[in-house]
Design goal:
Blueprint (H helix, E strand, L loop, with lengths): L14 E8 L11 E8 L2 H14 L3 E4 L5 E3 L4 E7 L3 H4 L1 E2 L8 E5 L4 H11 L1 E2 L11 H7 L2 E2 L2 E2 L4 E7 L5 E5 L5 E2 L2 E2 L5 E8 L1 E2 L2 H18 L24 H7 L6 E2 L2 E3 L7 E3 L2 E3 L5 E3 L4 H19 L8 E3 L6
Parallel strand pairs: 2-5, 3-5, 4-22
Antiparallel strand pairs: 1-2, 6-7, 7-15, 8-16, 9-10, 11-12, 11-15, 13-14, 17-18, 18-19, 20-21
Helix pairs in contact: 3-5
The chain binds flavin-adenine dinucleotide (FAD).
Flavin-adenine dinucleotide binds next to strand 3, helix 4, strand 9 and strand 15.
Length: 325
């Protein structure tokens, strides 16, 4: 069942809103339908009131970060989609509490800009996030990271706005950061503070660049994708295996459904390639559709299950009309 979003939820608040808002341009995949309403709060008060009202009226509420880990259904989504890209929610505060070694970034701040900014100022602690497209809120929610560490390594505290409209602050010690997961409760990441140290700006910049280059050399970053589609699974013997390696060994690299393709370079990257050459050498143009990507995901899961008896779980978040977020 889809749920309508009456204007009385937001029209008297300090927010920007767009009805029937296309979401494709807000995601790295660049596909998917529309949100019934996309709302951009300008203040914390507007955000908390909106969240309380959605909770009260049982309206589905979703938060959009930079859309780097998201696949929106071709039919779009119902309820309310919030985007924290107004200046208040993009702010970064340095020297929180007068301490050089603590900075605070709001949920809508760009992770890439923050990493660059830290490097320029000679601040170390977040360089492991180099090359990972994200908002601060999306990165915290996913505990984004990779070979050089994850965002959780640098966290000092996180403020979560619960669906009841209350803000709760979780100190680092109260949060378990796991592989692409956290123990934080459901809700909106309003801000996160980080423990950082001062260092030589040149050394900081070099480290950020080194990590970026490594990432670029190992992953097809230019493709319309969301990075890794699947989590690395735990095998029956208890070891964690690379999902990309299993996909490669299952022989499905290069498999395609319409424009959706398992990258021939990195098996865990499922991207759209709308213009391609088929086996007969003809140039084909196919529309990029979430439905094709879903089918491709299932084909990969089936192939890996058949060969290794292991279930691949998606890391990418799927949004679908009528489904509770
Ligand atoms: C080219 C490419 C490379 C990538 N490489 C990596 C990598 O190396 N490592 C890695 O971990 N990831 C990688 N990713 C995936 C992506 O960068 C991360 O998952 C990132 O954390 C997504 O952040 P986002 O702001 O784009 O979140 P979105 O994609 O917008 O949302 C993802 C989830 O976070 C939730 N969310 C967003 N903002 C908030 C908020 N303020 N409060 C609460 N929930 C929120 C959304 O509701 C959704 O459930 C890559 C993606 C791409 C496109």
């Amino acid at each position: 069942m889809t749920v309508a979003s009456p204007a009385s939820l937001y029209s008297d608040l300090d927010v920007e809103w767009t009805l029937d808002a296309p979401l494709a341009s807000h995601t790295w995949y660049g596909v998917g339908g529309r949100a019934d309403v996309l709302i951009r709060p300008r203040s914390l008060e507007a955000l908390t009131t909106l969240v309380r009202r959605c909770h009260r009226d049982d309206i589905p509420l979703r938060v959009l970060g930079s859309g780097a880990n998201l696949l929106v259904d071709d039919d779009g989504v119902d309820g309310v989609v919030i985007k924290l890209d107004e200046p208040f929610f993009q702010a970064v505060e340095w020297n929180v509490d007068g301490r050089v070694e603590r900075l605070r970034a709001f949920g809508g701040a760009s992770m890439e800009k923050l990493v660059q900014h830290c490097a320029r100022r000679g601040v170390r602690g977040l360089e492991q996030m180099s090359g990972i497209p994200a908002s601060v809120g999306g990165a915290i929610r996913m505990n984004a990271g990779g070979k050089f560490g994850a965002i959780g390594d640098a966290v000092d505290a996180v403020a979560i706005l619960g669906m009841d409209g209350e803000i709760r602050i979780f100190p680092r010690e109260a949060i378990n950061f796991g592989y692409r997961t956290t123990s934080l409760p459901a809700g909106i990441v309003v801000w996160a503070s980080f423990r950082v140290t001062e260092d030589d700006p040149i050394a900081c910049r070099e480290r950020v660049l080194e990590i970026f280059k490594y990432k670029k050399s190992t992953q097809p970053m230019g493709a319309a994708s969301a990075g890794c589609m699947f989590r690395n699974p735990t095998m029956p013997d208890g070891t964690v295996e690379s999902a990309g390696r299993l996909i490669d060994l299952a022989g499905v690299k290069g498999t395609r459904v319409g424009a959706a393709l398992v990258s021939p370079r990195h098996g865990n990257f499922l991207a759209f390639e709308p213009v391609f050459t088929n086996e007969s050498g003809e140039t084909i143009t196919a529309p990029s559709r979430t439905d094709d990507m879903r089918q491709l995901v299932e084909m990969v899961q089936d192939a890996v299950r058949a060969k290794f008896g292991v279930e691949l779980e998606t890391e990418v978040v799927f949004w679908r009309r009528g489904e509770r977020p």
